[in-house]
Write a structure and sequence with these properties.
8 strands; 361 residues; alpha/beta
């Protein structure tokens, strides 16, 4: 049994953190679903930037849409929705079979809106309506301004992937926003079954401290943060507040591990996948990590529900001067800025391609 299948049998969903038109056109995504136990997909501005910049597969559509007067964000979302609705249709049998537990794809609102609650909510509502697929998450960052939009979108029945979470505290704030939306639906007699995942980023922790800690502590911080967050997740799922909404028909918001590709070339390429196997969670991984797991990956023990040695490990980081609370806030701010930079580059790539293709026609 491949490690990808074994991980799935342990109760963790494997999602692909990538989308390109080539993956769809060549049947590669379908192959990953059939052979590597992939049951969902995530995207972000950086992924689309690379996909459009490094492929000619979008050129014909860009040329056509540009000739119709479309440009910028309007043109991009047409390209993205085309890819993601096709992917959603591939995953739809899984979504149907699991009754909405799995089989999701994700599309992010413009990262320029990360600190604008009202515009984020409006964008999420519009994109979900345009997609017309029940198994499409709209990604909203779990920033201070994003949390009210998450609550309102959940209350409106829009499935949300809460992104850019880096710590237990940020996760708990996002889970609270989701729960408030669900509780309001129950109070007003609406169906409380609204899908959601909360995405906690892992590898960026280790990249941020690699030059600030002794060699013995490298590549341990992200895993320790994940273990601490998993303990909070499992505790929350068993709390009276969550049990009440489950009893009313609500669906749990699943914890998702994001940024699980190994950034340190000296570390194992499946480091975070092996360390973060955990029931009732999702691991969305880059294509290279998925292939490595299928080719030579092995699994260890599942993540302990009590957080294991996370607090002991985090205490060692505190001893060498790492303030994880401050770093979590910095990583979230930096992550939002990085997506903005990718977004602006993406807009520039689309604009340049539109001009070049128009001249060539």
């Amino acid at each position: 049994m491949r490690a990808t299948e074994a991980l799935h049998h342990q109760g963790q969903s494997l999602w692909l953190d990538n989308i390109t038109r080539d993956l769809l056109e060549t049947g590669t995504l379908g192959q990953y679903i059939a052979e590597l136990s992939v049951t969902g997909l995530t995207s972000n501005p950086t992924i689309f930037d690379q996909a459009i910049k490094n492929s000619s597969s979008y050129d014909a559509v860009i040329q056509k849409k540009s000739s119709e007067g479309k440009s910028g964000e309007e043109l991009f979302f047409e390209l993205a929705l085309d890819d993601l609705t096709r992917a959603a249709d591939l995953f739809r049998p899984i979504w149907d079979r699991t009754h909405g537990v799995d089989g999701w794809v994700s599309l992010e609102v413009s990262p320029l809106l990360a600190h604008d609650t009202a515009s984020t909510l409006a964008a999420a509502t519009g994109l979900h309506a345009r997609a017309g697929r029940p198994n499409l998450f709209i990604k909203i960052p779990g920033t201070k301004e994003g949390l009210p939009a998450i609550e309102e979108a959940t209350f409106a029945g829009i499935p949300i992937n809460v992104t850019l979470l880096f710590s237990r505290e940020q996760y708990l704030a996002a889970a609270d926003a989701f729960l408030r939306g669900i509780e309001r639906r129950i109070a007003t007699g609406r169906d409380p079954e609204v899908g959601s995942v909360a995405s906690v980023f892992i590898s960026r922790w280790d990249a941020a401290v690699k030059d600030r800690v002794p060699a013995a502590l490298r590549n341990q911080l992200g895993i320790a943060i994940a273990k601490r967050t998993y303990q909070a997740y499992r505790t929350l799922l068993g709390s009276p507040r969550w049990q009440r909404v489950f009893n009313a028909g609500a669906r749990p918001q699943r914890l998702l591990w994001a940024s699980t590709g190994t950034k340190d070339p000296s570390a194992p390429d499946v480091l975070y996948v092996k360390a973060l196997a955990a029931p009732f969670t999702v691991n969305t991984m880059p294509e290279s990590t998925l292939k490595a797991l299928a080719d030579h990956g092995s699994l260890g023990d599942v993540l302990p529900a009590d957080g294991g040695d996370s607090e002991e490990v985090l205490a060692r980081f505190a001893q060498v001067g790492i303030d994880v609370d401050a770093l979590a806030n910095q990583l979230q701010a930096d992550g939002a800025k990085a997506f903005v930079n990718s977004w602006r580059e993406l807009m520039e790539v689309i604009a340049a391609k539109s001009v070049r293709l128009a001249r060539a026609s």
